[in-house]
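Field: COMPLEX_INPUT
Field: COMPONENT_COUNT = two
Field: RESIDUE_TOTAL = 226
Field: MODE = joint
Values follow.
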Amino acid sequence: GESVGLHLPTLSVQEGDNSIINCAYSNSASDYFIWYKQESGKGPQFIIDIRSNMDKRQGQRVTVLLNKTVKHLSLQIAATQPGDSAVYFCADQDPSGGSYIPTFGRGTSLIVHP
Amino acid sequence: DGGITQSPKYLFRKEGQNVTLSCEQNLNHDAMYWYRQDPGQGLRLIYYSQIVNDFQKGDIAEGYSVSREKKESFPLTVTSAQKNPTAFYLCASSYDGYNEQFFGPGTRLTVL
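Field: COMPLEX_OUTPUT
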């Protein structure tokens, strides 16, 4: 993944707003995509995933959109809450070669203001 | 209560010493992984194992070693050959490598 400086991209929103976090991936052979949430000092937690035969998947308050044409993934969080403040990582997996190793993005820091 | 555990949470090491980080899972997952995370950075893969008694180097394996003698355990040794070992280390597991990963709480290693 990309690595430029020590500062993560940051998204600041007000409580109750909808949040959209974007992710670009580079491998056109990737067919599995995952979003993780990492709170400060903790390990990442799985939020939602999507396979390449879909372009949208919904969970509880979250939606993932996949645009394979432009290799873009987004995570939408509805009615953002202070507890959603965290770093969000996308990951993609390419099954060719037989090793299922995800490629993680750098992450986006979401800050929710009460 | 299934999950993945790492110990210790904080670890301090003097330069020139080897140290082993523990990772245990009771999820019956085949695949296990070790990542390193530096401040403001993403996850970098150190080693991974898709099955017992087999493991592969990741992107930054130099100065690290692992073993996978049991399905539930995947310890990581940070050797004195690792020049900049201070970091947050994360262990993860996956059912078959082609599903989401479950992460442990992490071990923060500081070299004094």
